[in-house]
Specification:
Layout: H1 2-20, E1 26-28, E2 43-46, E3 49-52, H2 71-88, E4 96-103, H3 109-119, E5 126-131, E6 141-148, E7 151-152, E8 155-156
Parallel strand pairs: 4-5
Antiparallel strand pairs: 1-2, 2-3, 3-6, 4-6, 7-8
Length: about 160
């Protein structure tokens, strides 16, 4: 519990610092036509921070169906989707400062962690994880991230 409260406090501090920078947030839409009708942005840039909406293991170009095979393939696809969103907006996995992981079954923690280590290396981003029922589309995992992504000459780096 203390870890979750600390992580939420850290996220709020980052958000407050960005808001104090005086820039209006930039709401970034997905290029995927299937996402056009969804009531949220793919990411929001506020100051030097990029806030990603939660990603699940949908396979691009496969009618957004979940990756087959359980937690391993879904975790792999989820983190690949995060990488794609970051790259679209001028950031990389190395820029991620915080992740929040939602697992449909907390027993999948070790399997998720094995995949996570393939996508992130030390020093690792701050991270919180919790069990959550009812993830979108029956997903086994959802991950949201915050990345540091300063603008360069008015554009993302």
């Amino acid at each position: 519990m203390r870890c979750c409260v600390s992580a939420m406090g850290l996220s709020l501090c980052f958000a407050a610092a960005a808001a104090c920078a005086g820039e209006r947030p930039e709401f970034l839409a997905s290029p995927d036509p299937a996402a056009a009708g969804l009531p949220f942005s793919e990411a929001v840039r506020s100051g030097e921070l990029l806030f990603l909406s939660g990603q699940i293991g949908t396979v691009p170009g496969a009618d957004n169906a979940l990756a087959k095979g359980g937690i391993g393939p879904q975790a792999e696809q989820t983190l690949s989707n995060i990488r794609a969103v970051l790259e679209r907006h001028g950031a990389s996995m190395r820029d991620v400062v915080k992740c929040t992981v939602f697992l449909a079954d907390i027993g999948d923690w070790p399997a998720f962690n094995a995949v996570y280590r393939k996508h992130f290396s030390a020093p690792f981003p701050a991270r919180s994880a919790l069990a959550a029922s009812g993830l979108a589309m029956g997903a086994k995992v959802e991950v949201e991230c915050i990345a540091q992504a300063p603008r360069t000459a008015g554009k993302p780096r």
